[in-house]
Structure formats: structure tokens, C-alpha cells
Amino acid sequence: MNKKISLTGIKPTGSLHIGNYFGAIKPALELAKEYDARYFIADYHALNTVKNPAELNASIREVAAGWLAAGLDPEGVIFYRQSAIPEVFELATMLMAFTAKGLLNRAHAYKAAVQENSGRGNDPDAGINMGLFTYPVLMAADIILFDSDVVPVGKDQVQHIEMAQDMARSVNANYGQDVLKVPRAAVQESVAVVPGLDGRKMSKSYGNAIPLFAPEKELRKLIMRIVTNSQAMEEPKDPEISQIFLLYKLFASPEEQAALAARYRAGGMGWGEAKEELFRAANRELAPLRERFQEILAGPAVLDRILAAGAEKARPIAAATVKRFRRAAGIDSG
Ligand code: ADP
Ligand code: TRP
Q1: Enclosing H/E stretch for 318
Q2: What is the pLDDT of residue 188?
Q3: Torsion over CA of 118, 123, 129 and 133, rounded to 10 degrees?
Q4: Residue 244: burial class (beta carbons within 10 Å; 0-12, 13-18, 19+)
Q5: Are strands 78-81 and 36-41 parallel, antiparallel or unpaired?
Q6: Kind plus residue range of the DSSP H or E element containing 7
Q7: Fewest CB within 10 angstroms: 2, 132, 250, 266, which?
């Protein structure tokens, strides 16, 4: 029997952080053990915001090296750059014909930008490019093109997957046949939102991120910057409401978690010590990743070859989907 297909993409808009790792990369690599996995660098998505070519190119390489350093096996997973698959853009154009404008008006990222403009008394669409507005269509094309069954993503992306479902269903309903596969989101609840240094969701755009490949010294410095309350050292502390502990849970075994939780509750442990424990656990997991990452970046030709080989495997699958759709639509006969 054919295995089900898992697909996800990451935008190269800056350095990867711990939220990306636990919210996207790790669950995706876990799924790759069971599913036929197709993972990619969403470089055209990044173009909406990154207009500096050197910066975009560096991010593409970092995100690609990041996936590999985290353990992606390019023999087992089809791993490619979105920009190497021109069929994505054909499918996106076809999907446009099945996408209500009102649906895109309701997309979170666009709505947030409009609200921000309005709040400032500006034209609601000021500074918003069509790339941002049509983003969910391009993302739906990324997903649908590869017959994806599940899409591992963080909670913030669920709306986009629902939109992709909407588009695939409209196409299938119109032609009265299953032209396109309807995908579903796979959100890992336990790591749905990784908190940042200030307690809000960790995000590049909030400046509260811990970069996944930060050198040891910087990692320590950032962890020491995590915002805490003013409870004194002797006071017992509730681990479940401490973001230091939430982050610790990501890196520690259940036994280690139980042991540290007990120390929190007993009192006598200051925040500095809790941070030190977090640093130790984080560095234990991240040090080997960091090393592999540097090695991969140092050999750009190998990285290019891996991505080119991935694109070669991806294109026939993509072409088949576009062909199916074109036929159903009456654009191609036979
Ligand atoms: P950012 O918010 O830093 O710009 P992206 O939007 O590029 O991150 O996210 C890339 C992937 O990582 C997405 O699948 C997203 O859901 C996931 N992700 C990002 N931040 C977090 C977080 N703090 N917790 C869990 N998952 C996250
Ligand atoms: N929109 C996703 C993000 O911001 C990135 C992305 C683009 C993606 N295309 C995708 C994720 C297809 C999953 C599937 O993180």
C-alpha cells in the first residue's frame, strides 16, 4: 500500500529559532519516519518581505542547512526549493480561479496588516503587496501540488491549511471528481506554541527568539535574559507557569522534568539556577546540531547538489498534478 504523504515548508526570512525547530522541523522529521515526506524551502514566500538579495540567499542556505543539521535524510525525504518547481506557480494561477476574494480578505496576516494601517489612520492597504494578499493561494499550491495528506505546522498556520482544503474542495466539486487531494493540518499540541524570551510566542518578528544555531556563549546569554517575576529565591515556585520551565520541558527527559519541577515547588531555587539548568539541557541537544550546521554551510556545493536532486524527484509529481487539473479543466484534451 502507498504510504501517506507529509509535506511542509519553511520560509527563509531569517535564522531559524527554537520555535521553528520544535514547532515545525522536529515534528516533521518525526512524521518522515512513517510518511512519504516532501519538505521544502519556501523561497518565493520569503520574497514578499526580504528584498535584499544577499540576505535572502543567506537565509535560503541557512534554512536548508538547518533541516539537514536537524536530521533530514535527503535520500528518504524529497527535499527541494520551492523556486525550483515552476509547476507551483501554474497551480497557484489555476487555484486563483477557485478562490473567493473574501476568503483572502479574512486571512490572518492580511487582516492584521489592514488593522495596523487602520489603527494608524492610514489607507487600509498601504504597504501591502499582492504577494502578502495572495499568500494563502501560493501556500495551497505548495501543498496540493504534492498530493499531501498531512501538513505538519504550528497553530498559526492552521487557517492556511483550511483555505487549501477549501480550494481543493471547490475544484473537486466543480468537476465532480477527485482532481486534487484535500490536505489536513498536523499540529503537535504539546509544542504548539514555544514561548520567547519575553513570554510571548517566540517569533523573528518579536525580537524574542533564541536562534537554533546560536553559539554556546550567545545561547547562555539569551537564556539569562528570559524575563521572570520578582519572586525571591526562597519562595516556592509553580513550574507550570514559568516559561523557563516550559522551555526546559522541550529539552529534558520526563525524569529530569519531574526532578526540576520538585525543586521549583520546594523553594530555595532562584531564577538564575533555573536558567542554568535550562541552558545545560538546551546546549546538550543543540551543540551537535550546531556543529553539523557549520559543516554543511562550509560545503555549499554539496548543499546545492542535494537540493537539485530533490527538485528532480519533485518535478514529475508536480507535473502530474498540474496535468490532471488541466485535463479536468478542459485546458488539455486527452
Ligand atoms: P516566525 O514567527 O519566527 O516568523 P515562521 O512564521 O517563519 O516563524 O514559522 C515557521 C514554522 O515554525 C511554522 O510552521 C510555524 O508554525 C512554526 N513556528 C514559528 N514560531 C513558533 C513557535 N513559537 N512555536 C511553535 N511553532 C512555531
Ligand atoms: N506559511 C508557512 C509559514 O509561514 C510556510 C509555508 C509556505 C508552508 N508554504 C507552505 C508551510 C506549505 C506548510 C506547507 O511558516
Answers
A1: helix 300-329
A2: 72
A3: 50
A4: buried
A5: parallel
A6: strand 5-10
A7: 2
Strands of the sheet containing 5-10, edge to edge, are 78-81, 36-41, 5-10, 150-152, 184-186
Distance from the alpha carbon of residue 134 to the mean position of ligand 2, in angstroms:
13
20 pocket-lining for ligand 1 (C-beta < 6 Å): yes
Q: Which residues pair with 17 in a beta bridge?
A: 211
Ligand 1 centre distance from Cα of residue 88 (Å) = 22
User: For 221, phi and psi rounded to 5 degrees?
Assistant: -60, -40
Q: Report how far ligand 1's centroid is from the alpha carbon of 267 (Å).
A: 34
Which DSSP category does 204 fall into? G
Q: What is the pLDDT of residue 57?
A: 97
The strand ranges marked E within 26-183 are 36-41, 78-81, 150-152
Cell 473567493 found at: 100
Rounded Cα distance, 5 and 186, in Å: 12
Best residue among 7, 41, 156, 190 to mutate for probing ligand 1, ranked by most atoms within 8 Å of CB: 156
pLDDT at site 312 = 98
Q: Three-state DSSP class for 211?
A: strand
Residue with the three cell numbers 507550570: 240
Q: What is the mean pLDDT of each run of 10 residues along the chain (334 residues)?
A: 91 94 91 97 97 97 98 98 98 98 96 94 94 97 98 89 98 98 87 87 93 97 93 89 93 96 93 96 98 96 97 98 98 84
Give the ligand whose atoms come closest to the C-alpha of residue 204. Answer: 1
CA distance 41 to 329: 29
Say if ligand 1 is within 6 A of residue 63 CB.
no
**φ and ψ at residue 160, rounded to 5 degrees:** -65, -35
| Whole-number Cα distances in Å, 86 to 82, 148, 254, 287, 319 | 8, 18, 45, 37, 9
What does the block give as the cell for 47?
A: 520574497
Cell of 38: 516532501
Q: How far is the CA of 8 from the centre of ligand 2 (A)?
A: 6
Terminal CA-CA length for the chain = 28
